[in-house]
Known about the structure:
Elements: E1 3-7, E2 10-12, E3 18-25, E4 33-39, E5 46-51, E6 58-60, E7 68-73, E8 78-83, E9 92-100, E10 103-106, E11 110-114
Parallel strand pairs: 2-11
Antiparallel strand pairs: 1-3, 3-8, 4-5, 4-9, 5-6, 7-8, 9-10, 9-11
Amino acid sequence: QVQLVESGGGLVQPGGSLRLSCAGSGFTFSSFGVRWYRQALGKERELVAGIGSTGATTNYTNSVKGRFTISRDNAKNTVYLQMNSLKPEDTAVYYCNANFLYQKYWGQGTQVTVSS
């Protein structure tokens, strides 16, 4: 059974940090690129960051460059999103997506709220 499970979301004050995790099972996780998306209330889902299957390549949307870091541990079938210097505009549901050729899997999402 294929599963992709996000965790680590929560409520944090502006300037704070969170680390999100995306754990995969039921497929060859190390062959898949993984992307983090987010969707704020009333807005379209946007791509936040991505990482290649080996971790050698990463990319970020401009608004999070220098604040967010994506990484992966294929021994643990997990991708992480370290989020620092969080801003209220980072508030959203964060989803991870694993993709390889025609295969695409989504997690259920984890809520991140940045508020004082």
